[in-house]
Every structure is written in structure tokens, then in C-alpha cells.
Amino acid sequence: TKSVSSKINGETQKRNQKTKLVSQSKITDLFPVRRSTRKCKSNLKNVEDAFIAKCILINKEDGLQMKYIENKGRGVVTSKPFRKGDFLCEYAGELISRKEALRREIEYAKDPTIGSYMYFFCYKGFDYCVDATKETDRLGRLVNHSKKRYNTVSKLVPVSGSPHLVLIATRDIGIGEELLYDYGDHSKESIQAHPWLEK
Predict the structure, then answer these.
(1) CA–CA distance, 14 with 116 (Å, rounded to integer)
(2) What is the DSSP string of 97-108?
(3) Deepest of 8, 84, 152, 199, by most Cβ within 10 A of its Cβ?
């Protein structure tokens, strides 16, 4: 009886030791770990901003061309399809202060042949303007306005500490479509002077 009892006690101790070893093991020692390849939103935004910065630095305007449009004059149309969220082009011009922009507006108003190519915005608490009045081969300055049918939206992207304005597709855009964005000037005075701002 003593030998049988000793044998049972010995087997019990072995089982307890195995249980203790298992309980001390990490779950990763027992099961394979599956790591997610999904990127968090902040990482995706960083990747997106880095791509846009690269497009700005190389003056990327692929898939766009200038076209004369009836009752409008010059405009920008697509020569390839774009997907919602795609970079389209930069609203390129001279970055100046609001004070300087207001001074220039007075000068430009003296010449009726000069259109309005001033884009005002705020960056890090300071008021700026991109003055694209000077004729260049950049297409962003030629994108026309539509309050109701816009298919692009402007986005502020800093590059090396300097703010840049770019246009991003708000929906899928087919070949041959005109790019349009809302200039944002909805004041009563501006609409009276330029009725097309309501369209």
C-alpha cells in the first residue's frame, strides 16, 4: 500500500510541475503570432503628405491640359482618369503676406486686362496669399470656379516649412472633364460684381 501511495504521489507531483511550466509559458510560446499589416491613420497621412510633397517639388501635372472653354476662356481638363483623393496639381505662384497681397490688388485693379489670381489663406496663425497673377505654364492658376459642380478641393501642405496649396480630387474624375473648385468667395458684394460665383 505504501509503494502504491508513493507512486501516486510521484505522478501527481510530475503533473503539477508540468502544469506550472505551462502556466509560466508565454502565450506567444504556444501559438503563432499574427501581426497586422494595416497602417494606422497617422501613418497613412504621413505617407500621403510625403507623396504630395514630392509631386510639388517636381511640378507634377500629369494627366492635365489647358483648354479653351466656351463662355469661360481658359480652363483645365483631364487627359486621364483620376480617383477620389488623387493629387491633381499645385496652385503655384508667389507666396506673399496678406498686407502685400492687398497692396497688389489695388495695383492690379488699375488694369482691366489682369484677372484675379490671388489665393488668401491662414497658416500657423499668419495670413498669407499665393499670387498666381504672373503668366506661367503652371495649370493650377487656370482651374475655374464652381460652387455647385466642383470636383476638386484645395489642401494646404507644408514642404520644408513653407506652405503650398494643392488641388485634390473630391470624386472619381473621367477623361475630358473640366477641373472645378469653389473659390470660397460667397460675399454679397462679390456675387453682385461676379454673378458666376453663384454657379
Answers:
(1) 88
(2) EHHHHHHHHHHH
(3) 152
